[in-house]
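Troubleshooting: if your tokenizer reports a length mismatch, compare your output against this known-good record of 223 residues.
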Amino acid sequence: MPRCHDVLVENHLRDLAESLRGPARLKADLLTEARHGLLDAVEAYRADGLPAAEAERRAVTEFGSPAQLLPAWQAELAVGALRGLSQRVLAVASLLVVAGDLTWRGSSWSAGPRPPAGYLLLSASVHWLWLAALAFAAAGLLLVTLAARSANPGPAVLARLVGTGLTGCLGLGVLAGAGLFAWSIGLWDAALTWPPMIIGAVLAGAGYLWLGRAARSWVLAVR
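Known-good structure output:
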């Protein structure tokens, strides 16, 4: 609990927290660092003989208003959100690209008639969409690193474009993957009882939800 004379500091931090959007852990770290800096400034002013209320007012004024602080903080949160999203995509997309074909091997219908041309096209599209997501994710991590090391706004602008492309690929990949699964069930009733298919569907669904949370965090951070 804040002390009575820390109310102004806590109000200032709450105003900042309500305006920031992005990864919860990074946001909490920023606010914790700000709280420590503000309270240290308050203690320094009080050591100089200022009353508690005046010390807080001076510390908050010198620290900066939300309008002054939010652009830089929000940019940092956006970079952190893209980093987290890219790392998750690399993990999930790599698994889907490598293990996607394993759900079909040995199935009772794999040696049957060739699927329709539209089905084959959709299957190939899913594969290429996730490969594109992998490429966007790798580019996102590279640009995040460059943006953190450079004062030039170029990498940050490119990172936002890459994040947009990555999010678009994810949305299309999820829709195409769900459509392919539904079509597979329509073509082969046995797919509903084929263990690798069931396991793959459960893992893919969990992966989609995991990615969806990270994508939402990035969208909110850059909006």
